[in-house]
Amino acid sequence: MHRKQFLLGSLGGIVMVANTQHVFARALADTPLPGLPGAADRCLVVVNLQGGNDGLNCIVPHGDAQYYQLRPSIAVPRGDVLGIDNHIGFNPAMRSMKALYDKGMLAVVQGVGYPDPDHSHFRSTEIWQTAVPAKYEHTGWLGRYLDEAALPKDNLFNGVAIAQVLPEALVAERTDVPAIAQVNGYGLLSDRQSDSRSAYRKLVGDDRLPFDSPYLAHVAQIEDHAQKGSEELPKLIAGYKPAGAYPATPLGRSLSLAAQIIASKAGTRVLYVQHGSFDTHINQKATQDRLLGELADAMKAFYDDLEAHGNDKRVLTMTFSEFGRRIAENASRGTDHGEASPLFLAGGGVKGGVYGAYPDLGDTNQGNLRFGTDFRSVYATVLERWLGRPSEGILQGKFPTIAAV
User: Fold this and answer.
1) Which pTM value belongs to this model?
2) Multiple choice CATH, 5-189+220-339+363-395, 3.40.720, 3.90.25, 3.30.1300, 1.10.760
């Protein structure tokens, strides 16, 4: 039996995906790991920096002369860098994230990547979202976590993607995850039209259909989940008053909704948002500086909001991007697809600081930064140290964790 997906309907940004390979689903994983008090109430927020964020102009090696030699037009001036130490510092647009770092709430994990990296947006994104570089995998690493975490089966919001479509990271065998772009557009098109809703329900319940499909009942169940979820979510977040000064950007609105879902006590364990595109082949500096500023300001507002509602210590945020950029700038004052780059872990439960060695600009892989930290080590850290689940089965291998959490 091969996995199939059914697009049940779309209105203002909801897409519900149903996985039909549920008969032969894996058994549940082991119980949560010991020594993690409060793990049952924790939430992970994943921020996808789409397009390939340039790590060198994000965490800037202002103490390395090679950086300025290789980037004569787009390098961040030494005097503008928000210094961490004499060698590295934040892009000046990231002042709000530097404030989180100074409070001990932000960890910078340097040189993150994977062996034999792929420079295609599509394939590398797929690798990061499935956590399986060596082959094609039909479920996402977060989807596998949701399947194996023994979460309440009647909870419609164990995982939520704040996006137009369900990202591959959240595709699961047995867990239905809603993709919600905005609350007032959350619902199925058929449920907005009485005639369509009535016709669909008659079709599902008609035992005279000229075919016998093992999937029809499951499709009907997912449609029912979507309909119930669209009624329940507005009630769960009703009356919430944001306490953070969110920027009027798509990411600001996404993280504001994430804070509301977290505060609703709906039992959501994973939230996914996205930001970008960081695909800066041309005139990189203005575009990336704007996007990094939007990221920093939205993150700061998010944690101000969480703290005001007593949730900052139970929410971990992790960023990722499918790859970094090449070390040298191109002729268009941009950068092309590269390999390793930094990612961030933020939250009241984070042990702030810098983890991993900054990639050596003189020891490259054909003009690209060599990775020093396998991204699956970061995932293992999140799964084991934050969410309290064994990571080996989910990641299809054993990877060392990082002391940042």
Assistant:
1) 0.86
2) 3.40.720
